[in-house]
Amino acid sequence: MGKYRGSSKLLLQPKNTEEVSQILKYCNSRCLAVVPQGGNTGLVGGSVPVFDEVIINVGLMRNILSFDKVIVSGVLVCEAGCILENLISFLDDEGFIMPLDLGAKGSCQIGGNVSTNAGGLRLLRYGSLHGSVLGLEAVLANGTVLDMLGTLRKDNTGYDLKHLFIGSEGSLGIVTKVSILTPPKLSSVNIAFLACEDYTSCQKLLLEAKKKLGGILSAFEFLDSDAMSLVLKHLDGVRNPLPPSIHNFYILIETTGSNETFDKENLEAFLLHSVESGLVANGVLAQDINQASSFWHIREGLPEALMKAGAVYKYDLSLPLEKMYDLVEEMRVQIGPAAKVVAYGHLGDGNLHLNISAPAYDDNILAKIEPFVYEWTSKNRGSISAEHGLGLMKAAKIHYSKSPETVRLMIDFDYCVFELLPDTSCLDDNHSIICLCLSA
Amino acid sequence: MKIMVAIKRVIDYAVKIRVKPDKSGVETNNVKMSMNPFCEIALEEALRIKESGLASEVIAVSMGPTQVVDTIRTGLAMGADRAIHVDYPGTLYPLSVAKILKALVEIEKPGLIFLGKQAIDDDCNQTGQMIAGLLKWPQGTFASKVVLDKEKQTAVVDREVDGGLETLCLDLPAVITADLRLNQPRYATLPNIMKAKSKVIKKLTPEDLKVEIKSDIEVVKVTEPPKRKAGVLVSSVDELIDKLKNEARVV
User: Fold this and answer.
1) pTM, 2 dp
2) Cβ–Cβ gap B193/A290 under 8 Å
3) Which of A275, A283, A287 sits opposite B34 (nearest CB)?
């Protein structure tokens, strides 16, 4: 997005865990700051050097090590630099899928996904990475290789440390291998693109969908009228599924199951009932894979459309469902005509992607957004970063979503890990994120 | 004027095709099936003609086993007024399809027959031409633009041909087959899906139409195309010339 620029002089691309270990050991002994990097698709400046840190990019570590499909879900073991889309294609041939999917799949790497606990479009159905990652291998700051690369579904032997690495954005170590549960690929996928007149209908529709489509619901996304207008204006090859007007809200519902006829009937019945009861104003049902892709293209293309529209201030928030759109409306009042407030997100997870689109970056606009957006979120006990992580952007803001005692314990734990390791004299760059929190 | 549109149920265009291990055909088990994209375009054009007031009714026709009804329902959800399902459990090749369509035409008497230019599973590109021949009707194939004139009872059709665009004027009744750029088909909206549930699908068999299905074609073997070999880096011009001469044999 062009928001963060570092001035690193060196990028290293290790080819295996041993090389990562040697690099870290060396940097540690010379007190050289490092920053781990994967596909560089992060949205909070977590993979960009703050100053001149050595960049350790794991992109060359892209081997798939094993795939076991004897168990009901497959188990995939691979290196951290594997691109998500490549893993999806590989599994496709085997009849399985990755438990996560995001718009950045063409570039993002699984090591980064795990390190940031990426959410994505299918969290509603397959849960978070905390549930689907079975094990990982990571290298600590002093070069110690931590082998926690289990492939077992159940293992209650002591603290499950892998969970600390999942989502710690590289502050505890660099993830080098991942072992992940892969759900079977089900044949019947149906997708509907719906229009709702108000936010209350969207909420009710979600609750109804969870009740009536429960087992087969695999995605529930929303976008508002400003988001739709933006996409239609800036994205190529996109057309309005419900011409001619722009509706207030759009909902994308996807179901995935194993019985085509049954699922389609189920979804149709649910949708027709929703129209009859007034929850849905209008909608279309994809009749083939091409149409399904075009609906997803609208939703997945929003970040790209926002980039093309100019400067964008991105906020990724978890909020109570009933309050979510209130923030959007209040933000519009706050900002006034200076910029457009665009809202979309994983409504099914209570996750709002709030984007303020302006012709150019402008501190006056920023002053109207922050700290308003963080204070509002904090007041409603939401999360200032639902899935994007803290990175550089939000490290100092952690106190909006976590109590001082909790943050204190994080810092204590962090120091503890480093103190306990032999020869750890220095800290890695993302470690300093935790320190930034201390200063806040 | 009635418009009859023939639609075919095929493996979805976006699916990765796998050949069956016994090489008798492609894998269709548990594979997503949809309306042939060119048939969809043909149906869309027919609907637009009706919406402009130049036709009274659009009839969707499909042939094959029971599952074909799914595709017919999509056609009705797009806006076709009614449909005919010719029930036949096996594979139908273009000549059989054309003969059945001819029998249907004699019953329904449409002023226009619309088809896709070809099906994406067999790529035959024959049915439209054959039915025009059987009926002795004019044909405008690979249509990228269709303009009807009610008074003169003609259809002006722009055809996409190798050399560019050819414009023909056909006297109605006529056969038109749709090419990719003719239009962009509409999505099936929920209100239309609802309406489609009460639309009539008439079921007939080839026997009802007094058409005998006998094929003079038999599929002997289906294989995948040879996999593209990786390129080779040569180290010198001499090696390149040697390979061009002795391996590729083009010099």
Assistant:
1) 0.87
2) no
3) A287
